[in-house]
Specification:
Blueprint (H helix, E strand, L loop, with lengths): L2 H5 L1 H20 L30 H21 L19 H24 L11 H14 L7 H24 L8
This protein binds cytidine-5'-triphosphate and magnesium ion.
The site of cytidine-5'-triphosphate has 18 residues, from helix 3 and helix 4.
């Protein structure tokens, strides 16, 4: 795979198009703060005496995340017809967004996040303690795996997103710090 295929602007556009519903699922699950909260592990512990997933993984948050992904992907499916794809000199591989693909991407994102929490608890990380890189990439990897069951995906998207997502996360946190919304700049 040529470097240009990974770091080219067209690969970035294709990759972002694909991952927007996953960002929505992962970023909007915290809206469950405003609902009733049912923890997925029902408060139970694993053999090691620590929580299976922890209080941060709820049924409500999972459903909200998946629904947001379905909704955004459905909207993108409509927006597709109004976007200037012909600006590209080469045909792009734009994932066929719609509710079904949105469901797979959202389900993947939420599942990846829950699997990640399982391993964080096993490693002794208490709920909410950050695990840099892993916290930003878990949901992307699983979105890819789940989406690959229904549409063709490209490894070059995964590589691109693995690099830019942690960078975005860092800059967003830094802006929140400058705005006084966050205590630490990371
Ligand atoms: N959330 C939820 N259900 C999910 C995922 C997230 O309710 N399946 C909500 C929880 O309120 C959670 C918040 O979104 O606290 C932020 O999610 P995340 O950072 O993934 O959870 P943490 O609380 O940091 O827990 P962990 O250490 O297990 O990652
Ligand atoms: Mg967290």
């Amino acid at each position: 795979m040529a470097l240009m295929e990974i770091f080219g602007i067209f690969n970035l556009v294709e990759a972002f198009w694909f991952i927007i519903p996953a960002y929505a699922a992962n970023g909007l699950a915290p809206l469950s703060k405003f609902t009733r909260r049912t923890t997925i592990d029902k408060g139970k512990n694993w053999r090691d005496g620590r929580r299976i997933f922890g209080d941060g993984k709820t049924l409500e948050g999972s459903i909200i995340g998946i629904l947001m992904s379905v909704f955004i992907a459905g909207f993108m499916g409509l927006a597709f017809f109004f976007l200037p794809w012909d600006l590209s000199p080469i045909p792009m591989q734009i994932a066929p967004m719609g509710p079904l693909l949105g469901f797979m991407i959202g389900l993947g994102a939420i599942t990846g996040d829950i699997v990640k929490s399982f391993f964080k608890r096993r490693l002794g990380f208490e709920r909410g303690r950050s695990m840099p890189i892993v916290d930003q990439l878990d949901f992307i990897l699983f979105s890819f795996l789940f989406a690959a069951l229904v549409v063709p995906v490209k490894i070059s998207w995964l590589i691109m997103l693995a690099i830019v997502t942690p960078l975005f996360h860092l800059s967003a946190n830094y802006m929140a710090y400058l705005l006084g919304v966050k205590k630490e700049p990371w």
